[in-house]
User: Fold this.
Amino acid sequence: MSVFIDKNTKLVIQGITGRDGSFHAKQMMEYGTQVVAGVTPGKGGQKFEGTVPIFNTVMDAVKATGANTSVIYVPPPFAADAIMEAAAAGVQLVVCITEGVPVLDMTKVYPFVKEKGVRLIGPNCPGLITPGESKVGIIPGRICMPGPVGVVSRSGTLTYEIVYQLTRAGIGQTTCVGIGGDPINGTNFIDCLEAFEKDPKTKAVAMMGEIGGTDEQEAAEFVKKHMKKPVVGFIAGQTAPPGRRMGHAGAIISGSSGTAAEKLEAFAAAGMGIAKRPKDFVELIRARLG
Amino acid sequence: MNLHEYQAKDILRGYGVNIPPGKVATTPAEAEAIAKEYGTAVMVKAQVHVGGRGKAGGVKFCKTPADAKEKATAILGMDIKGLTVEKVLVTVAADIGSEAYVGIIVDRATKKPVFMVSAAGGIDIEQVAAETPEKILYVPVDPRYGLPTYDAMRMGFFLFGDVKLARGAAKIMQQLYAAFMASGCSLAEINPLVVTPTGELIAVDGKMVIDDNELDRLPAIAALRDVSSEEPSEVDARNANLTFIKLDGDVGCVVNGAGLAMATMDLVKYYGGEPANFLDIGGSSNPEKVVNALRIITADPNVKAILFNIFGGITRTDDVANGIVTATKANPLKVPIVIRLTGTNEEIAMRILTENGFSASSDMDEAVQKAVALAKGGK
Assistant:
C-alpha cells in the first residue's frame, strides 16, 4: 500500500514535448511509472519516444487511454488553465510541478478542482513517489527505497536531502509527497497525514515544514487529535531574519503566526518528535519504528 | 514587489478612488515648489518600503512652502529601519474627522482574497486586531464572482451608520478590489480611509504589494520597480535570476532550493557560525548562474568562507562544478571554499572539481562544520 499513487497509476503528461516535460517523462518511464499519454496542443497523433501517444487535449487522452492521473510541466502563464483542463477531463489526481503560478490564478483554480472532487498536488512542487512502484514529478528515484515511512514536505531539495539520509541509513519510504511552498496549494499537510494514518504500510511519518503561514500548527493539532502513528517534524528557516513587512493586513490576519519557534512549540505540544537538523530524522524515526 | 505609496495612489486614482493631489520630490526645492503650487497646507511623506514611517519621523505636516522645504530637508536622506529616504510625496493635507481601515489580502487559510475593514483605522490597527478583534470584519471574496454589492454594503454599514457614507465606502471597496485583481496584488490597503468634517470620504494612505509571479504579464506594473530603494546586491542577484537576501554573518552560502537553503543557514548557526546570506540558485542549473552567485557573494567583504550545498535533482551537479571552475579561474578566490554536492551527475562533478584542485564532500553536516571553522580562521 501507499498513498495517492501506486503501480496502477496511469499517467498523462501535460507538456510532454517541452524541455522539462520530455526530460522528466523519460525519467518517470525509466522508473517504471505507467506513462500512458502525453498532451501538447497541435502535436496530437504523434508519439513520444516512439511509444507514448500524444493528444491535443487532456480530454482526448483520458478517453483514449483511461489515464487517471495528470502531471503538469507547462509554463506558469498556462499552468492554471492546464490544472482546470485536467480536472475537467476526469482524472482523479493532478500534480502541478510548474513554479511561478500567480497566486490570484490559484484562488480561481482551487474552488474549481474542489468542486470536481479532484485532488491537486502543488503547484510549485516536486511531485510524489511511491518507491518501487510509481513516480509522478521530479523526485530523483535513486535516493528512495521502499519501506515504512511516509514523507511529506513543503520544499523540494530539502525533501531529497532527508529522504536520502533515511535511505542511506536503511530506512525506506511508503510514499514521499512534496506539497509545494506556494501560499495556495491543492493538498496540505493534513491531507497527507490523514492518508498516511489510513495507509496500513506506513508506520511513521516524517514531516518537513517551513516558516510562514499556519499550516504546520494546524497539522500539529491534527496529529494530536487524530493520529496514532508517530510523526517527526522539522522546520526550515529557524534562523531566517524577519522580513521587512509592508502594510498591516498580513499581521492582522495571521497575528504573530509563522515563526519557526511557534511551529516547533506546536509540534512539541502535539507530542511529535522534533528534528533539530535534517540528519536527526534518522535516529528519531528509527526509535519510533521500534 | 512592494509599491511606494505614491505609486499605489496613482493606481487607485485610476480606479476612481478619491485621493488628495500629490507629487513626488527628490530635493527640498522641489518639495517647496509643489507646496507652493497647491497653495495650502501639505504633508511631506518619506517614500520607503517599510512600515512605521510616521513613528520614525518620516511624515510631517507643513503649513507653508518654506516649512515643506525645511521638513523635506530633514526627511530626504533620513535612515528608516536601514533604508535611506530618496523621495518624498508632497500631498495636500486632509482635514481628518475619523479614520477607518480597509485592506484586502490573499489569505492562505480560506485560499481567497479576504477583505478586512475596521472603523478603528490608523497607525495602531494591528493593536486593534490583537486586543479588540470584534472591531474588524472579515469578508472573503470568491474571485470567480468578484465583490458583490451586498457584501460591499455590509462592510460599508460595519464602518458607518450613515447610509451615504456606507454607500461611498462600499464603492471604494469595489474600486480597491478591481485595482487589487488587475494589478496582481497579494495585498492592497487604504489606511486611513478618512471621513472629513464635511462628510467626504478620502484615501489618505495606500499600500500595494504585487505578487512577483504576475510581473511577466503586467509590464506596466513591473516598470514601477524602484531599484534605488533596494539593496544593490539583491538587485544584481534578481537580474541574474537568483534569489538572494543579504545577512550579517561571514559564511557565504550557495544552495539550490529555498527549503534546503534555509536548512543550510540553520545548520551553519547550529554549528556556531553565522550565515552571510540566503542564496537560492533555483532549479534548472547552468554554469553562468554559479558564476554570478560567486561574484555576488565575494563582493561582500564580511564573507570569510564560502559554502556550496547542492542536491542535484533538476540541477545537474556537473553544471555547478563547471561554474565554480570557470568563476574561480577568472577571479581567483581570496577566501576558502567548501563544496558539498550530491545527486545528478555527481561522479562527473567530483572529477571536474578534483582535476581543478578542489575537494568536495557529499555530507551536508561535515561541509557545514568545515565552513564554519574556516570562517573563524581555523583549518
Q: What stands out?
A: The radius of gyration of chain A is 19 Å.
